[in-house]
Write a structure and sequence with these properties.
The protein has 4 domains: about 150 residues, no CATH class; about 110 residues, Sandwich (Immunoglobulin-like); about 200 residues, Jelly Rolls (Sandwich); about 100 residues, Coagulation Factor XIII, Chain A, domain 1, CATH 2.70.50. The protein is built from 2 helices and 48 strands. The radius of gyration is 25 Å and the shape is globular. By secondary structure, the protein is mainly β. A hairpin with a 5-residue loop joins strand 12 and strand 13.
């Protein structure tokens, strides 16, 4: 992704908050406003989410709203968890399959009842009628019965805050780790089997444990790239991979309503030493028209690609010298954009085979977005890994998005700026004009309208000459993202410190300043002062305000959880959110420490502060 353009847009104003103490709001123990409801429109909310990895605090808690108390018995809740590589499982057990609703509208379900449940990355809760019956889910991705009958649904994406991440070829990769056999291939997955070498190449290893089980390597992108041309530069000749090893380069979506949304390039012979060594696949592979096998030349590097368009997918395999080996176009490829992420993995088709360890090296990956397409990302961290939250600040990237470079001139945002407009059509078919902060040739910053319904939405940007660009987004309730001081989504936090002294007096202090000599932001060390001082970190971000409850917002500073006093709208700037957290005194003298935000189980980008 290109570096965002700097302007006097809201992003620049958010940075100004770091340096202009007069814009900092008073610290308060704010509570969410009571939500009015229609008794004929039952809804579901989550009030407490177990932390990833916890085997002691395991209850998912929620509440049913917009319904009179005498009707709670008309409904029940179904809870399922998804574990990467294993699929979805009903919780807490198959018997009983559903969770009852208490007389006060609350409910709770134990989501860690066996195996590696604590490693679940997705938690889905459905509100269904008490008469609904279906079978227990024990793996797989088919939740169609629940989706068809659901009165309300809440999906929580829960990341591992300690997971290894890499930046390679301009994309952020989450590295998969699993101590139990999971897909693909029923392999173990080891984080150390994915790394970037001295030359900047991505290395994937397949190694054997002392008890003769294979440990695979996999990295998956944090962002959803969508339609466009994907190009992989593979250094490892296909014939040098052992017959049991498969190199996968593909997109895969985990959304249960969109199973088999997968585009694959695979190098491997799937256990047969005499088989062809490569294939293009559109899942499900069991359809004979969905697969094209071929041989890549012995001893040669390759350039492999697929061009994902609206109506077809065009695959191509070439040698590094530019000789075309195979081309294949798959027609009528109606693959929807929801949650698919790019994946790179090296795995064994026979987890107990006796072949030697192996390694695959990819020198580069390139992505060329579909022409006239728009990629909408959070303006704070430039990601849409799980979706974009309504009422949040969005940065859209494309070409010919505007005919001028212009910023909104007041806090009251226009819906047309320099002739450019942004329209968002949500899943319910309602189209709204989005307020705009900033426009330029390749970037538009806008506010995702607060009323946008959850689910897939179409974004259409029209410039002053009538040129239209479009793209899809997945709208979700929360997508926490923190602003950084340099507007990159990394490094020093766009934040301030509030010091509350024993006499009640308050002092605001910056955590970063711009150094004119180095032309970059540098840390202002935070002095925790005397033991009677309370020092609060005031973080600024977006995609936070529609959190389920303040108890589901957690801040981790230097590896320690902190008390959160407020998490909600900043109050002055549209779409800007604020989180106030007490800095633990045990961190005194730690120097640079990472700060992470967890909202409803979703983890933000990482920013940094310095503690003296």
């Amino acid at each position: 992704m290109k570096n965002p353009e700097f302007s006097c847009s809201l992003i620049r104003l958010a940075l100004a908050i770091t340096l202009m103490l007069s814009l900092v709001l008073e610290l308060s123990l704010a509570s969410a406003a009571a939500q009015g409801g229609n008794a004929d429109s039952p809804d579901l909310m989550i009030t407490s989410i177990p932390e990833f990895g916890s085997v002691s605090s395991t209850l998912l808690r929620g509440r049913v709203t917009n319904i009179s108390a005498d009707r709670y018995s008309d409904y029940k809740v179904a809870v399922l968890i998804a574990i990467e590589g294993l699929g979805y499982y009903s919780k807490p057990f198959c018997t009983p399959l559903f969770t009852p609703i208490s007389t006060d509208g609350t409910w709770s379900a134990n989501i860690v009842t066996g195996g590696v449940d604590q490693l679940a990355t997705v938690i889905v809760s459905y509100l269904v009628r008490s008469s609904f019956q279906t079978t227990c889910v024990l793996g797989g991705n088919n939740l169609s019965d629940f989706d068809r009958e659901a009165i309300a649904k809440v999906v929580i994406h829960r990341d591992n805050p300690l997971a290894k991440t890499l930046i390679w070829s301009g994309i952020a990769l989450d590295i998969k780790e699993s101590p139990v056999p999971v897909d693909p291939g029923g392999n173990l997955f080891r984080a150390d089997n994915v790394f970037v070498g001295d030359r900047g190449y991505l290395h994937l290893r397949l190694t054997k444990t002392s008890d003769r089980r294979w440990q695979a390597g996999e990295g998956l992108s944090r962002s959803i790239l969508g339609r466009g041309r994907y190009v992989f530069y593979v250094e490892t000749p296909a014939d040098q991979l052992p017959p049991n090893a498969t190199l996968g380069l593909y997109t895969f979506g985990f959304d249960p309503t969109m199973s088999h949304r997968e585009i694959d390039i695979e190098l491997g012979r799937f256990g047969n030493p005499n088989a062809m060594n490569a294939q293009f696949v559109i899942q499900p592979f069991t359809n004979p028209n969905n697969i094209r096998r071929f041989d890549l030349p012995a001893g040669q590097r390759s350039v492999l690609s697929f061009d994902w368009q609206k109506d077809r997918i065009a695959f191509k395999a070439m040698t590094a010298a530019g000789v075309t080996i195979q081309e294949w176009t798959y027609p009528n490829a109606v693959l929807q954009l929801v949650d698919e992420r790019l994946r790179f993995n090296l795995w064994s088709v026979f987890p107990s085979s006796d072949e030697p360890d192996s390694e695959a090296v990819i020198s580069k990956f390139e992505f060329f977005p579909e022409p006239a397409s728009v990629a909408s990302l959070s303006a704070a961290n430039y990601s849409n890994a799980y979706g974009i939250a309504r009422d949040s600040i969005v940065a859209a990237f494309g070409v010919n998005l505007a005919t001028v470079t212009l910023s909104a001139s007041s806090l009251e945002l226009p819906t047309s700026l320099g002739g450019t407009t942004v329209r968002v059509k949500d899943r319910a078919g309602i189209e709204r004009l989005a307020p705009i902060f900033f426009v330029s040739l390749n970037q538009v910053n806008y506010l995702l309208p607060p009323g946008t319904a959850a689910g897939k939405a179409e974004v259409t940007i029209t410039n002053g000459n009538g040129v239209t660009s479009a793209g899809a987004i997945n709208v979700i309730p929360v997508a926490p993202a923190l602003f950084s001081a340099d507007a990159s989504g990394q490094g020093l936090a766009a934040a301030v410190v509030l010091r509350v002294r024993a006499d009640g007096s308050q002092v605001y202090e910056p955590v970063a300043r711009f150094d004119e000599i180095s032309r970059k932001f540098v840390a202002v060390p935070i002095d925790l002062g005397s033991s009677s001082d309370k020092v609060f970190l005031v973080l600024f971000g977006t995609g936070i305000r529609w959190r389920q409850a303040r108890s589901t917002v957690k801040v981790m500073v230097g590896g320690r959880n902190t008390d959160v006093d407020y998490a909600g709208p900043q109050g002055i700037l549209f779409g800007l959110d604020q989180v106030n957290a007490l800095i633990p005194r045990e961190l005194q003298g730690r120097g640079d420490v990472d700060t992470l935000l967890n909202v409803d189980g979703q983890i933000s980008n990482k920013v940094m502060i310095n503690i003296r």
